[in-house]
Amino acid sequence: MSPVALTDTVTITYKATLKSGEVIDATPENKPLTLSIGDGKIFPAVEVSLLGMEPGQTRTVTIAPEDAYGPHYKELVHTLPRSIFEGKIEPKPGMILSLALEKDGREEQVPATVLSVNNDTVTVDYNHPLAGKPITYTVTLVGINK
What we know:
Layout: E1 9-17, E2 23-26, E3 33-36, H1 44-50, E4 58-63, E5 77-81, E6 96-103, E7 106-117, E8 121-125, E9 135-145
Antiparallel strand pairs: 1-2, 1-3, 1-9, 4-9, 5-8, 6-7, 7-8
């Protein structure tokens, strides 16, 4: 059988980990993922790593933050008055909240991770929780459908 090419549909298993070794995503056991190269189901940098692989082969690729969830922007970390949460929720570090932000004259709900809480303020991060982190994928090609 010929190796993976641009127009192929492939079946893979994968595990995605952070530098610490923490697993952040993986195909469920005995449930491989089927996708067409270029369909956007996985990050393009991971798709490219599949090219040239043959069934049964495993490849490990580390993708840069820019090719995954983007860089971590310091300007997306905000300190808010704790009073805006009174009577609604008791924020705690690690919580992910849906907060209202104005963008282009419209109010939108945006997820934010609570970083810290003190008596008067709450510091939140509007970046994706995985922003700024390289991700290592270990991918095994199960099969190719030409």
